[in-house]
Design goal:
There is one protein chain. With 166 residues, this protein is an alpha+beta fold. Helix content is 27%, strand content 27%. The longest helix has 21 residues. It is globular and about 40 Å long.
């Protein structure tokens, strides 16, 4: 018995300015939207954490004038509830002019750089892909807390191999 492909049945998007209050605004907007879609409280909590980390990374590590956030309610063809997911995606406009990406990964004991470790810990899957001058980082969570494994597997490398360590 194979798994059915997932498709988006609902989508919501919003844009934020790159200022410190944007992470809190993203958390509120994400929680409101997912609650409206009937996602469980645990999923709403995890999604708020994920979107906060991704938005913060875009603010701190890029020269973006706007940060684009999308939420997707994903369902499988069979409708058995096992493949239902919520996808959070945050797209920035690219790195700072003259800025370089940090080399290598940041060690877990360092004060900064734990954001993507948190994303990996609460997500069933996540990744990043270049989108022109920017980066799109996404994460998937089970729509209901008891739906599926929460083991994300290994932390993926950034697609260009630079070892970006957020």
């Amino acid at each position: 018995m194979g798994t059915s492909p997932l498709f988006s049945v609902r989508r919501s998007s919003f844009e934020l300015a790159p200022h410190p209050g944007s992470a809190a605004q993203a958390r509120r907007m994400t929680r409101t939207q997912l609650t409206g879609w009937g996602a469980c409280e645990d999923t709403c909590d995890a999604a708020a954490l994920v979107v906060s980390e991704l938005v913060t990374n875009a603010i701190v590590h890029t020269a973006s004038r706007r940060i684009h956030c999308e939420l997707h309610d994903l369902r499988g063809d069979e409708g058995d509830g096992q493949g239902e997911r919520v996808r959070i995606a945050v797209r920035d406009e690219g790195r700072m002019l003259g800025g370089t990406r940090p080399a290598g990964r940041i060690a877990p004991e360092e004060e900064h750089g734990r954001g993507l470790l948190l994303v990996a810990a609460v997500s069933t899957a996540w990744g990043a892909q270049e989108t022109g001058p920017g980066l799109l980082v996404w994460a998937e969570l089970p729509r209901q807390a008891d739906a599926g494994s929460t083991d994300p597997g290994p932390v993926p490398d950034v697609p260009d191999g630079s070892g970006w360590a957020w």
